[in-house]
Amino acid sequence: MLEVREAYKTFNAGTVNEKRALNGVSLTLKDGDFATVIGGNGAGKSTLLNLVAGVFSADSGSITIGGQDVTRLPEHKRAKFIGRVFQDPMMGTAATMQIEENLALAARRGQSRTLRVGITKGEREEYRELLKLLDLGLEERLTSKVGLLSGGQRQALTLLMATLKKPKLLLLDEHTAALDPKTAAKVLSTTERIVQRDRLTTLMITHNMRDAIAHGNRLIMMYDGRIVIDISGEEKKKLTVEDLLAKFGQASGSDEADDKLLLS
C-alpha cells in the first residue's frame, strides 16, 4: 500500500545550516499494516511523514501509494489517497463551523460540488452514529461550533473526519502529543478501533515508546535520517521498553538516547 524507495532529503543544502534529514530511507507497508514510528529529535520521523504526504518533494527516491507512483504529485493531489491527523488539534477542523458541517465536508471530499445546500436527515443520523464511537457525547452536540470543543474532542473529531472516506493511507503525526494523558489514551484507543475495523494502512509517529510498543503490528525506529529498527509479529508483541532501548543502542552504535524519548 505504501512503498518508499531510497528517499533522500537535505534541507538548506550548501549552507552552514545544511541538514540531511533522510539518508536513503526505504519502507514498505502492506495493506492493513499499522506501523508506529519512533525516534529522537532530528531522527527524520516528521520529514518522512511530510515526504509521503507531499508537503515537500524528495531530493531523490520514489514514493508509491496503492500501486500509483505519487513521487511527482503535489500535496493537494495526494490528498485523495491520504487521511492525516496533525499534532495540533486546531489544524484538522474548521472552528467556526458546526460539528455536523465539519463531518459533511469530510464526507464530500473528492466529490464534485453542487448547488445543493444543507445536510440531509439521513446524513445527520449517520454522523450521530459515527460520533457515538468516540464516547465523548458529541452525538448530542451536532450543531455546536467546533471552536467550543476541548483539544481532545477536536482531535477525536479530526480522526473521525480523516478516516471517514477510508483512505488508502492514514498518517498520524504525534496526534496525541498535545493532549493530557487520559484524553490521549482515549484518542489512541479510538484510533486502534477505527484502524482495525476498516483495516486502514497506518503510519503513526510518536515520541512515546510505550505507545509505540502497545499499538500497531509493526514498530519502526529512526536515527540520523535512517531506519535502524523494524520489528513486527511476535517479536513486537514481546518487546519491552528496556529491549527497545538496548536494540536502539546496538543499531545506532550509540548508547545515548534522546531525552524526550526517554522521558516519554
Q: Nutshell version of this structure?
A:
The protein is built from ten helices and ten strands. By secondary structure, it is an alpha/beta fold. It is globular, with a radius of gyration of 19 Å.
Could you give the topology of this structure?
Blueprint lengths: L1 E10 L7 E11 L4 E5 L6 H9 L6 E6 L2 E2 L5 H4 L3 E4 L13 H9 L13 H12 L18 H13 L5 E5 L7 H18 L3 E4 L3 H6 L3 E6 L2 E7 H5 L3 H12 L6 H5 L1
Parallel strand pairs: 3-8, 3-9, 6-7, 7-8
Antiparallel strand pairs: 1-2, 1-4, 4-5, 9-10
Looking at this protein, list some descriptive labels.
about 260 residues; alpha/beta; 6-stranded mixed β-sheet; 4-stranded antiparallel β-sheet; about 35% helix; globular
Residues in helices, as a percent range: 25-40%
C-alpha geometry:
globular
Instruction: Count every helix, treating DSSP H or I runs of 4 or more residues as helices.
Output: 10
Contiguous uncertain segments of 5+ residues: none
Q: Biggest β-sheet, characterized?
A: 6 strands, mixed
Strand content: 15-25%
Describe the structure.
- This protein is α/β, with parallel strands linked by helices.
- The protein contains 10 helices and 10 strands.
- The strands form 2 sheets. Strands 6-7-8-3-9-10 form a 6-stranded mixed β-sheet, sandwiched between helices. Strands 2-1-4-5 form a 4-stranded antiparallel β-sheet, with helices on one face.
- Helix 6 links the parallel strand 7 and strand 8.
- Helix 5 runs parallel beside helix 6.
- The longest helix is centred in the C-terminal third of the chain and has 18 residues.
- It is globular and about 60 Å long.
- The mean pLDDT is 90.
